[in-house]
Protein backbone atom coordinates (compact mmCIF):
# COMPACT_ATOMS: atom_id res chain seq x y z
CA UNK A 1 0.00 0.00 0.00
CA UNK A 2 1.25 3.50 -0.82
CA UNK A 3 2.34 5.74 2.06
CA UNK A 4 2.23 8.95 0.02
CA UNK A 5 0.53 11.97 1.48
CA UNK A 6 -3.09 12.47 0.40
CA UNK A 7 -2.54 16.23 0.29
CA UNK A 8 0.09 17.27 -2.27
CA UNK A 9 3.28 18.44 -0.56
CA UNK A 10 4.41 22.05 -0.79
CA UNK A 11 7.76 23.15 -2.21
CA UNK A 12 8.80 24.16 1.33
CA UNK A 13 8.08 20.65 2.67
CA UNK A 14 9.93 18.95 -0.16
CA UNK A 15 12.99 21.20 0.04
CA UNK A 16 13.05 20.71 3.84
CA UNK A 17 12.98 16.96 3.25
CA UNK A 18 15.72 17.17 0.59
CA UNK A 19 17.89 18.98 3.15
CA UNK A 20 17.35 16.20 5.67
CA UNK A 21 18.07 13.59 2.99
CA UNK A 22 21.39 15.36 2.31
CA UNK A 23 22.34 15.22 5.98
CA UNK A 24 21.86 18.95 6.64
CA UNK A 25 22.16 22.33 4.97
CA UNK A 26 25.24 23.63 3.21
CA UNK A 27 25.01 27.42 3.25
CA UNK A 28 25.11 29.03 -0.16
CA UNK A 29 24.65 25.73 -2.01
CA UNK A 30 21.86 24.30 -4.14
CA UNK A 31 19.73 21.72 -2.30
CA UNK A 32 20.50 19.33 -5.16
CA UNK A 33 23.37 19.54 -7.63
CA UNK A 34 25.37 21.39 -4.98
CA UNK A 35 28.84 21.14 -6.50
CA UNK A 36 29.03 22.31 -10.07
CA UNK A 37 31.17 24.05 -12.63
CA UNK A 38 30.14 26.36 -15.48
CA UNK A 39 31.35 26.67 -19.05
CA UNK A 40 30.51 28.95 -21.94
CA UNK A 41 29.95 27.70 -25.45
CA UNK A 42 27.78 27.85 -28.53
CA UNK A 43 24.77 25.97 -29.80
CA UNK A 44 24.33 25.63 -33.55
CA UNK A 45 20.95 24.28 -34.71
CA UNK A 46 20.91 21.86 -37.63
CA UNK A 47 17.65 23.31 -38.94
CA UNK A 48 15.93 19.92 -38.62
CA UNK A 49 13.66 21.25 -35.85
CA UNK A 50 12.51 24.37 -37.66
CA UNK A 51 9.42 22.80 -39.24
CA UNK A 52 8.30 21.45 -35.86
CA UNK A 53 8.78 24.36 -33.47
CA UNK A 54 9.08 28.12 -33.74
CA UNK A 55 11.54 28.21 -30.79
CA UNK A 56 14.13 30.84 -31.71
CA UNK A 57 17.21 28.88 -30.58
CA UNK A 58 16.23 25.85 -32.70
CA UNK A 59 16.06 27.59 -36.09
CA UNK A 60 19.29 28.39 -37.98
CA UNK A 61 21.27 30.89 -35.91
CA UNK A 62 24.11 29.93 -33.57
CA UNK A 63 23.42 31.14 -30.02
CA UNK A 64 25.68 31.47 -26.96
CA UNK A 65 25.13 28.97 -24.14
CA UNK A 66 26.22 28.58 -20.53
CA UNK A 67 26.38 25.04 -19.19
CA UNK A 68 26.58 23.96 -15.55
CA UNK A 69 27.74 20.39 -14.89
CA UNK A 70 27.03 19.07 -11.43
CA UNK A 71 27.07 16.15 -9.05
CA UNK A 72 23.41 15.63 -8.14
CA UNK A 73 24.02 15.33 -4.40
CA UNK A 74 23.01 18.08 -1.98
CA UNK A 75 26.33 17.82 -0.14
CA UNK A 76 28.93 19.89 -2.03
CA UNK A 77 31.72 17.61 -0.76
CA UNK A 78 30.09 14.39 -2.07
CA UNK A 79 32.50 12.11 -3.99
CA UNK A 80 32.31 11.89 -7.78
CA UNK A 81 33.47 8.26 -8.07
CA UNK A 82 30.12 6.75 -7.13
CA UNK A 83 27.08 5.84 -9.24
CA UNK A 84 24.94 8.93 -8.77
CA UNK A 85 23.34 11.01 -11.49
CA UNK A 86 25.27 14.00 -12.92
CA UNK A 87 23.56 17.15 -14.07
CA UNK A 88 23.91 19.23 -17.22
CA UNK A 89 21.96 22.48 -17.04
CA UNK A 90 22.06 24.60 -20.20
CA UNK A 91 21.04 28.22 -20.66
CA UNK A 92 20.56 29.27 -24.29
CA UNK A 93 20.76 33.01 -24.94
CA UNK A 94 17.91 33.72 -27.37
CA UNK A 95 18.81 35.57 -30.58
CA UNK A 96 16.71 38.64 -29.84
CA UNK A 97 16.45 38.82 -26.07
CA UNK A 98 16.19 36.71 -22.94
CA UNK A 99 17.06 33.06 -22.47
CA UNK A 100 15.61 29.57 -22.14
CA UNK A 101 16.90 26.66 -20.05
CA UNK A 102 17.15 22.90 -20.52
CA UNK A 103 18.04 20.84 -17.46
CA UNK A 104 19.14 17.25 -17.78
CA UNK A 105 20.47 14.32 -15.75
CA UNK A 106 22.66 11.36 -16.71
CA UNK A 107 19.75 8.92 -16.32
CA UNK A 108 16.89 8.36 -18.80
CA UNK A 109 14.03 8.31 -16.29
CA UNK A 110 13.18 9.90 -12.95
CA UNK A 111 12.62 8.09 -9.65
CA UNK A 112 9.08 9.32 -8.99
CA UNK A 113 5.91 9.80 -11.07
CA UNK A 114 4.44 12.48 -8.83
CA UNK A 115 5.59 15.07 -6.27
CA UNK A 116 3.87 12.97 -3.57
CA UNK A 117 6.01 9.94 -4.43
CA UNK A 118 9.16 12.07 -4.56
CA UNK A 119 8.38 13.52 -1.11
CA UNK A 120 7.87 10.03 0.36
CA UNK A 121 11.07 8.81 -1.29
CA UNK A 122 13.15 11.66 0.14
CA UNK A 123 11.89 10.64 3.59
CA UNK A 124 12.82 6.98 2.98
CA UNK A 125 16.32 8.08 1.93
CA UNK A 126 17.10 10.14 5.04
CA UNK A 127 20.32 9.00 6.66
CA UNK A 128 19.90 6.80 9.69
CA UNK A 129 21.24 8.49 12.84
CA UNK A 130 23.34 5.45 13.76
CA UNK A 131 24.95 4.67 10.37
CA UNK A 132 24.87 7.98 8.53
CA UNK A 133 23.38 6.10 5.52
CA UNK A 134 19.81 5.45 4.40
CA UNK A 135 18.25 2.48 6.15
CA UNK A 136 17.97 -0.29 3.48
CA UNK A 137 14.80 -1.62 5.16
CA UNK A 138 13.07 1.75 4.74
CA UNK A 139 14.11 1.94 1.08
CA UNK A 140 12.88 -1.62 0.48
CA UNK A 141 9.57 -0.79 2.14
CA UNK A 142 9.23 2.24 -0.16
CA UNK A 143 9.88 0.09 -3.24
CA UNK A 144 7.45 -2.59 -2.02
CA UNK A 145 4.76 0.09 -1.69
CA UNK A 146 5.64 1.54 -5.14
CA UNK A 147 6.53 -1.47 -7.32
CA UNK A 148 6.30 0.62 -10.52
CA UNK A 149 9.30 2.62 -9.25
CA UNK A 150 11.56 -0.39 -8.62
CA UNK A 151 13.29 -0.10 -12.02
CA UNK A 152 13.89 3.69 -11.89
CA UNK A 153 15.13 3.55 -8.28
CA UNK A 154 17.44 0.59 -8.88
CA UNK A 155 18.96 2.08 -12.08
CA UNK A 156 22.69 2.51 -11.58
CA UNK A 157 23.88 5.75 -13.18
CA UNK A 158 27.27 5.21 -14.82
CA UNK A 159 30.42 6.74 -13.34
CA UNK A 160 31.73 8.57 -16.41
CA UNK A 161 35.34 9.23 -17.33
CA UNK A 162 34.31 12.85 -17.84
CA UNK A 163 31.31 15.15 -17.72
CA UNK A 164 32.05 15.23 -21.46
CA UNK A 165 31.57 11.46 -21.90
CA UNK A 166 28.09 11.11 -20.37
CA UNK A 167 24.69 11.32 -22.04
CA UNK A 168 22.10 13.54 -20.32
CA UNK A 169 18.32 13.28 -20.57
CA UNK A 170 15.86 16.13 -19.87
CA UNK A 171 13.50 13.27 -18.87
CA UNK A 172 10.13 15.07 -19.04
CA UNK A 173 8.14 15.37 -22.23
CA UNK A 174 7.80 18.90 -23.67
CA UNK A 175 5.50 19.99 -26.48
CA UNK A 176 6.85 21.64 -29.60
CA UNK A 177 4.45 23.98 -31.39
CA UNK A 178 4.94 24.93 -35.06
CA UNK A 179 3.89 28.09 -36.90
CA UNK A 180 0.44 26.61 -37.69
CA UNK A 181 -0.14 25.62 -34.05
CA UNK A 182 0.48 21.88 -34.55
CA UNK A 183 1.72 20.20 -31.39
CA UNK A 184 4.43 17.54 -31.23
CA UNK A 185 5.47 15.86 -27.92
CA UNK A 186 9.27 15.59 -27.64
CA UNK A 187 11.96 14.33 -25.28
CA UNK A 188 15.53 15.66 -25.31
CA UNK A 189 18.88 13.96 -24.85
CA UNK A 190 22.41 15.37 -25.03
CA UNK A 191 24.71 12.82 -26.64
CA UNK A 192 28.48 13.34 -26.13
CA UNK A 193 30.48 13.47 -29.37
CA UNK A 194 33.34 11.71 -27.57
CA UNK A 195 30.99 8.76 -27.00
CA UNK A 196 29.66 7.44 -23.70
CA UNK A 197 32.76 6.32 -21.79
CA UNK A 198 32.51 5.07 -18.21
CA UNK A 199 34.95 4.01 -15.52
CA UNK A 200 35.01 0.47 -14.20
CA UNK A 201 34.12 0.08 -10.52
CA UNK A 202 37.84 -0.43 -9.74
CA UNK A 203 38.86 2.72 -11.63
CA UNK A 204 36.06 4.71 -10.00
CA UNK A 205 37.22 3.71 -6.53
CA UNK A 206 40.67 5.24 -7.06
CA UNK A 207 39.62 8.62 -8.49
CA UNK A 208 40.21 11.83 -6.57
CA UNK A 209 37.06 12.93 -4.75
CA UNK A 210 36.19 15.69 -7.22
CA UNK A 211 37.95 14.35 -10.32
CA UNK A 212 35.15 15.35 -12.71
CA UNK A 213 35.66 19.07 -12.12
CA UNK A 214 39.41 18.92 -12.76
CA UNK A 215 38.95 16.62 -15.76
CA UNK A 216 36.46 18.79 -17.64
CA UNK A 217 38.71 21.85 -17.32
CA UNK A 218 41.62 19.89 -18.84
CA UNK A 219 39.44 18.36 -21.56
CA UNK A 220 38.08 21.72 -22.71
CA UNK A 221 41.62 23.18 -22.76
CA UNK A 222 42.68 20.28 -25.02
CA UNK A 223 40.11 20.92 -27.74
CA UNK A 224 36.40 21.18 -28.38
CA UNK A 225 34.06 19.24 -26.12
CA UNK A 226 30.73 18.81 -27.87
CA UNK A 227 27.29 17.28 -27.55
CA UNK A 228 24.47 16.83 -30.05
CA UNK A 229 20.89 17.55 -29.02
CA UNK A 230 18.88 14.45 -29.89
CA UNK A 231 15.11 14.83 -29.89
CA UNK A 232 12.76 11.86 -29.72
CA UNK A 233 9.40 12.53 -31.38
CA UNK A 234 6.50 11.06 -29.41
CA UNK A 235 3.61 9.24 -31.10
CA UNK A 236 -0.13 9.32 -30.44
CA UNK A 237 -0.30 7.16 -27.29
CA UNK A 238 3.11 7.87 -25.79
CA UNK A 239 2.58 9.10 -22.23
CA UNK A 240 3.68 12.67 -21.59
CA UNK A 241 2.76 12.81 -17.90
CA UNK A 242 5.07 10.19 -16.40
CA UNK A 243 8.84 10.89 -16.08
CA UNK A 244 9.50 7.31 -14.90
CA UNK A 245 8.43 5.77 -18.23
CA UNK A 246 10.67 6.06 -21.30
CA UNK A 247 9.19 6.04 -24.79
CA UNK A 248 9.97 3.03 -27.00
CA UNK A 249 13.43 3.05 -28.58
CA UNK A 250 12.13 2.91 -32.14
CA UNK A 251 10.59 6.41 -32.03
CA UNK A 252 11.77 8.80 -34.76
CA UNK A 253 14.66 10.94 -33.54
CA UNK A 254 16.14 14.11 -34.98
CA UNK A 255 19.38 15.93 -34.25
CA UNK A 256 18.31 19.46 -33.39
CA UNK A 257 21.78 20.95 -33.00
CA UNK A 258 25.33 20.79 -31.70
CA UNK A 259 26.66 22.33 -28.51
CA UNK A 260 30.34 23.10 -28.20
CA UNK A 261 32.01 24.17 -24.97
CA UNK A 262 34.65 26.85 -25.49
CA UNK A 263 36.00 27.51 -21.98
CA UNK A 264 35.11 27.99 -18.32
CA UNK A 265 33.03 31.04 -17.46
CA UNK A 266 35.32 33.75 -16.08
CA UNK A 267 32.99 34.38 -13.14
CA UNK A 268 32.26 30.96 -11.57
CA UNK A 269 31.12 32.60 -8.31
CA UNK A 270 28.55 34.75 -10.03
CA UNK A 271 27.29 31.77 -12.05
CA UNK A 272 27.11 29.59 -8.94
CA UNK A 273 24.58 32.06 -7.55
CA UNK A 274 22.30 31.88 -10.60
CA UNK A 275 19.33 29.56 -10.76
CA UNK A 276 18.34 27.51 -13.78
CA UNK A 277 14.63 27.25 -14.44
CA UNK A 278 13.21 23.82 -15.37
CA UNK A 279 9.99 25.35 -16.67
CA UNK A 280 11.65 28.33 -18.40
CA UNK A 281 10.54 27.45 -21.93
CA UNK A 282 10.21 29.92 -24.79
CA UNK A 283 7.58 30.54 -27.52
CA UNK A 284 7.29 27.40 -29.66
CA UNK A 285 7.75 25.09 -26.65
CA UNK A 286 5.15 24.24 -23.99
CA UNK A 287 5.27 22.24 -20.80
CA UNK A 288 3.68 18.80 -20.89
CA UNK A 289 1.11 17.54 -18.37
CA UNK A 290 3.86 15.98 -16.20
CA UNK A 291 3.08 16.90 -12.55
CA UNK A 292 6.74 16.51 -11.53
CA UNK A 293 7.76 19.13 -14.09
CA UNK A 294 5.06 21.49 -12.79
CA UNK A 295 6.18 20.92 -9.20
CA UNK A 296 9.78 21.84 -9.99
CA UNK A 297 8.57 25.37 -10.86
CA UNK A 298 8.10 26.01 -7.12
CA UNK A 299 10.93 23.88 -5.67
CA UNK A 300 13.82 25.54 -7.53
CA UNK A 301 12.99 29.12 -6.43
CA UNK A 302 12.62 27.81 -2.85
CA UNK A 303 16.15 26.40 -2.95
CA UNK A 304 17.38 29.56 -4.69
CA UNK A 305 15.88 31.75 -1.96
CA UNK A 306 17.43 29.67 0.84
CA UNK A 307 20.90 29.44 -0.66
CA UNK A 308 21.13 33.13 -1.44
CA UNK A 309 19.72 34.12 1.98
CA UNK A 310 22.11 32.14 4.17
CA UNK A 311 25.41 32.38 2.32
C1 LIG B 1 10.06 16.44 -7.77
C2 LIG B 1 11.12 16.48 -8.59
C3 LIG B 1 12.32 17.36 -8.37
C4 LIG B 1 12.60 18.24 -7.37
C5 LIG B 1 11.74 18.59 -6.14
C6 LIG B 1 13.89 18.83 -7.65
C7 LIG B 1 14.51 19.78 -6.86
C8 LIG B 1 15.70 20.41 -7.17
C9 LIG B 1 16.24 21.53 -6.43
C10 LIG B 1 15.59 22.16 -5.21
C11 LIG B 1 17.40 21.89 -7.03
C12 LIG B 1 18.32 23.05 -6.65
C13 LIG B 1 17.85 24.30 -7.43
C14 LIG B 1 18.65 25.55 -7.15
O1 LIG B 1 19.00 25.82 -6.01
O2 LIG B 1 18.88 26.30 -8.12
C15 LIG B 1 17.60 21.00 -8.15
C16 LIG B 1 18.68 21.04 -9.00
C17 LIG B 1 18.80 20.24 -10.12
N1 LIG B 1 17.89 19.31 -10.59
FE1 LIG B 1 16.13 18.82 -9.73
N2 LIG B 1 14.37 18.31 -8.82
C18 LIG B 1 13.44 17.41 -9.30
C19 LIG B 1 13.52 16.69 -10.48
C20 LIG B 1 14.54 16.78 -11.38
C21 LIG B 1 14.55 16.16 -12.68
C22 LIG B 1 13.41 15.31 -13.25
C23 LIG B 1 15.73 16.49 -13.28
C24 LIG B 1 16.23 16.15 -14.65
C25 LIG B 1 15.48 16.37 -15.71
C26 LIG B 1 16.48 17.33 -12.34
C27 LIG B 1 17.73 17.85 -12.56
C28 LIG B 1 18.37 18.77 -11.75
C29 LIG B 1 19.67 19.35 -12.04
C30 LIG B 1 20.57 19.02 -13.23
C31 LIG B 1 19.93 20.27 -11.03
C32 LIG B 1 21.15 21.20 -10.92
C33 LIG B 1 20.79 22.48 -11.71
C34 LIG B 1 21.89 23.51 -11.72
O3 LIG B 1 23.01 23.18 -12.13
O4 LIG B 1 21.60 24.66 -11.36
N3 LIG B 1 15.72 17.49 -11.22
N4 LIG B 1 16.55 20.10 -8.22
UniProtKB/TrEMBL annotation:
GO terms for molecular function: catalase activity; heme binding; metal ion binding. One of its GO terms (cellular component) is cytoplasm. The keyword Membrane does not apply. Coiled coil: none annotated. It comes from the Bacteria. Heme binds at residue 300. GO terms for biological process: hydrogen peroxide catabolic process; response to hydrogen peroxide. Residues 2-308 form the Catalase core domain. Keywords: Heme, Iron, Metal-binding, Oxidoreductase, Peroxidase. SMART domains: Catalase. The keyword Iron applies. Its EC number is 1.11.1.-. Its cofactor is heme. Has an organic peroxide-dependent peroxidase activity. Belongs to the catalase family. This is Catalase-related peroxidase. It comes from Planotetraspora phitsanulokensis. The gene is srpA.
Amino acid sequence: MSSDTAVPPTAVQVVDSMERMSGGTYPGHRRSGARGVCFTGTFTPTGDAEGLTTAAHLQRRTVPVTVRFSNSEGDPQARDGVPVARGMATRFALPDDGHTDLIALSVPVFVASTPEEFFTLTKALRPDAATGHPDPARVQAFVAAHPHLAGPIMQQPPVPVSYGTAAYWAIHAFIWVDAAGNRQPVRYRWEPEAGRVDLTAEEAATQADHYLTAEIHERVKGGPVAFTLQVQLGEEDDPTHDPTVAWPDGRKEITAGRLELTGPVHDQEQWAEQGFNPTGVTAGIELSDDPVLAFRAGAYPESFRRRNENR
